[in-house]
Amino acid sequence: MRHINGAYTTYFNVKRQRSGHLFQGRYKTILVDVDEYAKELSRYIHLNPLRAGIVEKLEEYPWSSYPYYIGLEKAPAWLARNFILSYFANNVSDAQAGYREFVEAMIGRDYKSPLKETAFSTILGSTDFIKVIKEKYIKNKEIAPNIPALKVLSGKPSIEEIENEVGTIFGADTPMCRKVSLYFCHRYSGKKLKEIGKHFGIGASGVAQASRRIALKISNDAKLRKKVKLIESRLKLL
Fold it and tell me: What CATH superfamily classification does 115-234 receive?
């Protein structure tokens, strides 16, 4: 990936007589709970060309593997489809039909990126999945200093610590303090949704919904985003 981001970008810019970045954002890896998110991530990726308005039909995008997944074209030997297709049926043709129905069910509908559920900017999975990763791979092991997100797993902030820091920035007992505190608890405390919901006086499903709403607000509000970054720094989440 470093070669692609560096050497290939230089080659491309020289060839096209252009300058600047070729790829958007930095490359990063995310550990994924496959049973929970693999299908969703695959669908989200295949819907991207349509969502971006590049094509009118998914199978028209020339750089997509979607036609191979749904059986419109013969898949190349290097394309590993079986992992995703196996979630839909054992028979290949039935699996392809099931996957096509699964993907195209979201065409024209509001569909948020599954990556917005990523915790600690590194792990996409349930609280139990994060717990397993922590206990099996991180607990009592030295964590690389250049992976701060994993450091968070070795000592997650408590709900009280989060509320104190958020209150310092937004003012205690304010509506925004409550919203941002809930967002931080959902993303960083490692507590179960039920436990967070009980603390804030809402249901478990309400925790995830409220967290998504404030996450969207953070992404669209530069001033709010700056304050959130400050809180992350104070909680040693960066």
Answer: DnaA protein, C-terminal DNA-binding domain (1.10.1750.10)
